[in-house]
Every structure is written in structure tokens, then in C-alpha cells.
Protein: DUF1269 domain-containing protein
Amino acid sequence: MENILIYIVDSTEKSIAVNHTLADLDRNGDIRIYESITIRKTDQGGFDVLKDATEEGGWKTLGGGAIGALIGIVGGPLGLLLGGLTGTFIGATMDTEEFVVSTDFIDQVNNSLQVGEIAVITVVDETSPDFVDTALQPLEGRSFRTSVDEAYDHYQERVEKAASEEHAAEKAKREAKKAERKEKRAELRESVKKKISDWWDKL
Structure:
């Protein structure tokens, strides 16, 4: 299942340890990481971004324009979540053609994330949460998850019901669309990493 995973810790050192742990699980084939970013909540209601999440690469404070640029580069469910956390997107749900993120989930994360705390946000494919939860337990952080595909499916179901569309046919379309989205995200993974790296180099 493809999830947005958020793991909150209280120090840069722990956030780097989280990223190393997730990377190890990815290398071992226990999970698959699609995108990831590490942010820290500031006392101005904004966020800093850790430039290198696996090393002490330093924090960058991003203004509105830079945040918008980063969201545009990242795209997908991670971009939507960042948009919600930073107040760039507003609505009961935030959606593109392919992704939906509930503001209930975003509010839950925002209310939990305190000033100075750090959130490692990862789009991850995991057969079970046990691998990640067990590996991260020593870091004593707080975790939140929302399913990328299920959130989109629930949104589509509401749309279909309102439009009185045939459920069985639309379910088949959703499954085909889900497989297509998953394949596309896998193909774009390296491209997104390079775009983010190039964007950082220009800061």
C-alpha cells in the first residue's frame, strides 16, 4: 500500500537517523520510497527545510515563493501535503487529477507538530507498517499515515455516487488508474530527485 508517512522527532540528529533508517529499509526491499522531505516548524508559523536529509546539510528558511516552487517541483501527494501544511492550498480536500489529501489529516499533523519539532515526510510503498514502526521505535517519535490510493478512491466514490455512475465500471477504472499512477510515480522518482537537487543548488 502506498502511504504518506510522517514521522515527527525533536532534533536534527534524530531526523537524519530516521532518513537513514528508511533508506536502509528501502535498500533491503522492505519498503519502497518514492519521495521524501524533512521540514522543521518555525515560531513564525512557517517551515525550514533540511537541505540534505541524510547528513548535516543545514536548514533553509523558505518564503512563500520558494515554497510554491518546491511544491510545484515535488508535485503529487507530497506536494499536496506540503501545500496543506504551509497553507498554500485551502479546502475540505485538496486534489489534483490524481491525488487527494484530506485536510482532517493535515490538521491532525499540524496540531501535533510543535515549534522546533521536525517532520520527516515520505511517500512510501509498504506491505505492512510493521517494518517502519519497528525500525523507528528506538527514536521515540510520533508517526502519522494516510493512504494515497485509498484517499483518492474514497474521493472518487463520492463523486461517482453524486453523479449516479455505475459503481462496478468505475471501480475497474479506478483500479486501472491506480496501477497507472503507481507506474508513473516509479518512473518519475529519479527525475524528481534531480529536480530537487538542481533547485537546492540554485538557492
